Amino acid sequence: MSISTVNPQIEESWKKVLADEFRADYFSTLKSFLIEEKKRYTVYPPGEKIFAAFDHTSFESVRVVIIGQDPYHGAGQAHGLCFSVPQGIRKPPSLVNIFKEIK
Is 70 among the residues known to form the active site? Predict the structure, then answer.
């Protein structure tokens, strides 16, 4: 699988950093699994937003990465960024709690 067949919407520096991963066997297996799951279930976030976190900043600008473990599963909530929902979408209780702790 070439990176062109994956065609992620990500910032160019990430494409270079992740190119080997996109070509790896496990990635092809994962992609096939998600395609099959999408035929039977609703999968979040929408396909074009799966890599959204890698489109907001360059690899060189990243200082820390925080990975969420419990994805948002309500319609319209997931948009490819952990601990975030799109503007206009009601914040899930877990996100409300995060904002309380930050204050």
Answer: yes
